[in-house]
Structure formats: C-alpha cells, structure tokens
Amino acid sequence: MTGHRIIRAEPLDEPAFRAFGFILDVPCDGRRTGPVPVIADRRPSATITANLIDLPAQNGRRTVSQVERHLHGAQFFLHLSGGPVSLVVFPADSGGRADLARACAFVAAPGQAFGYHPGTWHAGVAALSERAAVASLLARDGTAGDVEEAMLAEPIEVDWT
Questions:
Q1: Angle at alpha carbon of residue 18, lines to 85 and 91, rounded to 5°
Q2: CATH assignment, 5-28+49-159
Q3: Rg over CA atoms, the chain
Q4: Before 35, cis peptide (omega within 30)?
C-alpha cells in the first residue's frame, strides 16, 4: 500500500501515552498496584461491561482505516495472554475529528494494561507477531452515546517491526 501515511509504533510508556490515557504495569516484586480507578462514566445509567477479545496474529504492517471514541467514559484493556498488542490513538482536531497528522502508535507488552481517556479517538487493538487475548472494560447505557465511529479520510499504516 503506497502513498499512505506510515507511522512507527513505539513501546507503550507513560510519558508518551499520558495525553491519551494511562498504563498499569504488572509489578515484578510480589506486590500489587492500586487500587486505581480505571472505569468512569458521566452517565448515571451506564453500567460497566466486559468483552473478551481474541486477536489473531498480524503479518507485516497494520492498516487502520476506522476509528472510534467513547465521549462519556474511559475504556480499559487488560492484556490476558499472548504476545504484544498494537494500539493507535489520535488527538481530536479543532472540529472534533481524529487528527490524522498527529496519530500515534504504541506496542503494549504482555503485562501492560492500559486505558483511554474519555473522548480519545482510537483504532481497535491488534495482536502483532503472535495471537493475544485482551479484556475490554467500558461503561455503556445502550444509547448512541456509547460509541462514535468514523472512517479515516485516508488509511494509516503502522510499522511495528
């Protein structure tokens, strides 16, 4: 796919990801994190939901052509098993759309959980070199406000190799 914008995925770390969300790393010292508030929603009728997602391994670059955001609440991902996963995020432009010119891509290692701030445009997570499984936690109330989806004006390719 030539002629498309290519962005390079970087390892997921807190300073680079701070504008989009937050990260929880599994402690390696026999201790625990938290408690950390990971799900919030501005609608009193919303309930926390969980989805378990099986992610097949990707080969080569990842192409992103559709994004979504959750205006009312944070979305949180627990990396359950398998290899690293790719996440692609976008700040909003002045019109509230995903800003393609400022897209960022990250690679979450096994043991990293992460969450998006409310309103953060993002692509679906994807496994990289090996299959992975994640749990997605999100508050929903069954209305159109649960998720806003948009097609990108031009697909973005993510180089994670």
A1: 80
A2: 2.60.120.480
A3: 15
A4: yes
72-88-83-1 Cα dihedral, nearest 10 degrees: 140
Q: What's residue 37's pLDDT?
A: 78
pLDDT at 12 over 70: yes
The strand pairing partners of 148, in sequence order, are 69
Q: Is residue 110 a contact partner of residue 83, using CB atoms and an 8 Å limit?
A: yes
Mean pLDDT of 112-135: 95
Counting every residue, how long is the chain?
161
State the maximum Cα–Cα separation within the chain, in Å, rounded to a whole number.
49
Domain boundaries, the chain: 5-28+49-159
End-to-end C-alpha distance for the chain, whole angstroms: 16
Task: Determine which helix (DSSP H) or strand (DSSP E) holds 107, and give its type and residue range.
Answer: strand 104-108
Label residues 78-96 b or e (16+ Cβ within 10 Å = b).
bbeebbbbbbbbbeeeeee
Flag whether pLDDT at 1 surpasses 60.
no
Residue with tokens 């969980």: 50
CA angle 43, 114, 149 (to 5 degrees): 55
pLDDT band at 116, cuts 50/70/90?
very high
Please tell me the distance from the alpha carbon of residue 119 to that of residue 28, in angstroms, as a whole number: 32
